[in-house]
Amino acid sequence: MRRVDAIHLAGYAASLALTLAAFGIAKFGWLDGTIALVAIGLAGLVQAAIHLRAFLHLDFKGSQREDLQLLLFAAVLIAIMVGGSLWIMFDLGHRMM
Known about the structure:
Layout (H helix, E strand, L loop, with lengths): L2 H26 L4 H23 L9 H32 L1
Helix pairs in contact: 1-2
């Protein structure tokens, strides 16, 4: 097996495990309250780091300009999506009151 295939399989397995753990926390109530939210958030951050390393092949040894631009662009997109979703939900909540 080639090294690239092993990295892809390991990344897939780790991502699947983190996804199942987050769903388990949410569905079956393995953790309660704020601890559950923190655990799910941390699982998401770790999964994002795994995706950057295993699938996008970004290493942070000699961070190149293109890698930095990619990360900044991804951060802007995530901020727009999360901010827009929160804006819509709060607006709908306000209109329902």
